[in-house]
Structure formats: structure tokens, C-alpha cells
Amino acid sequence: MKKMFSLLLIAALSVSLAACGGSNSGGGDKPSNSNKPSANNEEKSNNETAKVDVTSGKKPDLRGLHPFERYDPNKEYVAKFLEEKTNYKVKYEMLPEEMPDEKLNLLMSNKENYDYIKVSKEQFFKLAQAGALEPLNELIDQYAPIVKEGINEDTWKATTIDDTIYGIPEGITGLGANSSLVVRKDWMDELGLEIPQTRDELYNVLKTIKEKKNVIPLAGLEGIYLEIAASFGIANPWKEVDGKLIHRVEDPKMKEYLAFMNKLYTEGLIDSEWPINTGSKIIEKFSSGKAAMMSLPWFSTPPTVSALMKNFPDAELEALPYLKGDDDQAVWGVNAGITYVVALPKWSKNKEHTMNYLNTKLEEDIFKELVIGKEGVHHRVEDGKYYPILPQFNDELNNASYFLTGVDERVYSSYWQARVRKDPVLQSYYEKYQELVKDIMLIDPLSNAAPIESVSKNNQVLHKFTDDTFLKYIAGAESLDNFDSYLAKWRADGGEQMVKDANEWYAKNK
Fold it and tell me: Helix axis angle, 77-86 relative to 364-372, nearest 10°?
């Protein structure tokens, strides 16, 4: 019923918007002045005097729709700062916490007068398909040159449909690693063990730890354990092979990975509770000295390290390099996708001023202060790196990312890293992981794909089916001889359609 309701609303949108008339059309992955205009915009496109003067006179008040949050953005320090710097007063409204998609569809169907909306990638794509969004190529060319230059060509692909840009993509904070295996270095030294570089070396280390320390060598819980799977070349959900995409479950190396994990489980080299573990259980086992190794996300390092040091003040940790595969190379999968999209409803009344506002926010000094505040007040610079000044940074900029409407990808990552330097432990592990992954990142080829219906529809269910099945293979509850039966069901239950549709998108956009 929920899906039917959304489809009916989109259908209604398509009908009600048919009378709105065309707007600016464009071409290419990035905005271009050479885009051929649609017939009903030819006069405007060829008449330079039609350009609105957005630099002088009183600026109109703007109205923006944002995702749900548990604070009032209108009362935030950043809202006042942006009003002062851009001369645009914005009224910030938000979608509800419950059923946001339905509310968004209703607002758009009623043509609610928002100047811009900040939505998820999936929400954006549905509205674009329904004809609810303004094409932006010419608006960007005329009013947003900084936006145009600050966003990478590949990022623009995420919001480009049939050669027309319908939204400003908000890029990620930079490519890198979120987790790595960490090991009790003091135990490694005690046993005379070297840091493992390959799967075989990892196996020998785990075996020695089991025999000599009588603890859980490696604690974990996933069916596809990324730190080990990557050594088999299984780094991302999707992979290009001979010019075509395959899903990782169809990778010929997947059975080898599962056989290796089953070997570790059978020999007691990974946690016997692997299939039933939770993230909190793993951290408890590691910090209480019951496990020697775990995959630790950098954002979880402060409480984990604190708990370990409380129990074992002399403990030492070491982040392991990502394991080399059979070709003597290490890889680590990363997703270069976007977080949000900023779009203009077709019926918004201040399109030119809205684009000018979005562009002004990305001016060098304004964008920097939006993200990390004033130097000497909110942040300091040390060895070319930005450090937050606490508590001022948290008090006034903790929610600054809420106000982003596109980012300058050339500098955003270096600014954002100030946030990981709030805590020395957080900083040290974040920077260590990025150092380890620097030259081995492999980008998922679907990172910037527009939402693919069959993938959106089937991915969650098939992921759970896969994880449940793979955990059975790892624990020996089901024989790997049944892998082909699993794969046949995966394909029949939507996987085959996902692969087909993913390849259709890839053929057009690679």
C-alpha cells in the first residue's frame, strides 16, 4: 500500500506538471553553455537581457526544505552567519521523522512554494522522473559558476538524467577507509610475531595466538568480512570484469573466500559466536581481553581504546595493513557516491536568486567559514591541518553540515577533517587508516549511478538472504556444495534483474 501510494502520487505529479511547460534543457555531465535549448525556451536562451540581476537591490526571502533533525535550524549559529554573508534570509523547514517520502510527495503534488529542497538520492530521482524538478544546466551556467567548478565531473553524473542536470549533488567528505583490522600489539611482541601482510600470514598469526594465548584470535560477525574478502578481490558490491558488471556474490572468488572463512571457523581461529555476535559484543570481547583482533571503525576508536586501556593499561594496539591477495596486491573498496541532492521545484518563484544564493555559499571564504568557522575562534591551523577549538567549535558548528547545499570538492575534505581532530585517539586512527589505504582504493562502479529500481527494490532482502546463508557456510551449518543452489535462488529472487539493469546503466555511463 505504501508503494502504491507513492506511485499514485508520482503519477499525479506527472499529470499536474504537464501544464508547467518546459524549462532550461542542457547536455553533458557538467553544465555547458552549448546546450541546445528546448523550443519553448529558445527566446530566453538567446536573449542575454533575460538574465536577472541578482547582485543589486533587495534580496527575496527564500524557503528551503531539509531532512528531519532534532533541532530548529532557524536558531542555529550557521543560519545567522549565512544570512549575514549572503544577504538572503532563508526559512528552513524539514520533513517529518516518520513517513518523510509520503510527506515530500504530498508537498510536491500540492506545488508547495519551496525555493529549493535538500533530499536523498532516491527522493530526488523519483521527483525528477515525475517532472517535478527544474532543469539546471542554464541556471548553473548563468548564476552558479563556483558550483559548476567545485563539483567533480563524475559527481555530476549522479544528478544528470538524459543529459540534463536536475540537482546539485552533495559530495562525500573524501575517499578513504572506515575500518581496519587491529591487533593487540603487546601480545604480538610477546609471541615474537610479525604484522601479517597476506592471508597466509594472517592464518599463521591467528593459529599461534590460539595456541599460545588461549583467547579468541579474531572476533567478528559479517558473512562478508571485508578485511579478508578484499584479499580475494571482493572489495565492493559491484565489480567490472571484461567491461561488464558482476555482483560480488557472482564473483568466482566468492566460494574460495567462504571456504577460507570456514577453515578459520572450524579450526577455532575466529569467534565461535561469529553468526550471533553483535557489534557491542565484539567490542566487549576485545576490550576485556577475550579477543586479540577485530575490525575497528575509526569512529568507534575512542570508547573502544578507552575501555581497553582501563582494563589493561599497558596494552598496545596496531592497525594492520590491508591484506595482499594472490597477485601480491592489496585493494580496498570505497563508494564515491553522494549524500544529498539540492533541487529546485519547477514552480519555485525565485530560481535565479536561489542559484545565486547556492553559488554564494561556495565562495571561498564563506564556504570555509560555513564548514569550520573563523580561524582563532572555531579552528586553528597547525602543520597545514585544521584543528577545532573546543568548546566553541561544537557549540556553534556541530550542526554545520545540515546547511550544506553542495560542496567545493577541491577543499571540503581538508576542512571536514577538523571534525576528526576533536579527539587525539580518533585523529590518530583516522589518519592511520587513510595512510594505509592511500594507494589501493578501488571505487565501486555504481557509486554515482542514479537509483536503479530493481536494485532499490531487491538489494536489502537479497543482502539479508546472502548474509544469513554465508554465515551458515562459515559456521559449517550448511555445506558449500549448496552454493550453486544459493546463487540460483539469489538470481531468481531479483539478483538477475539487478545485474541486467546495472549493466544497462553502466553501458551508457561508464
Answer: 170
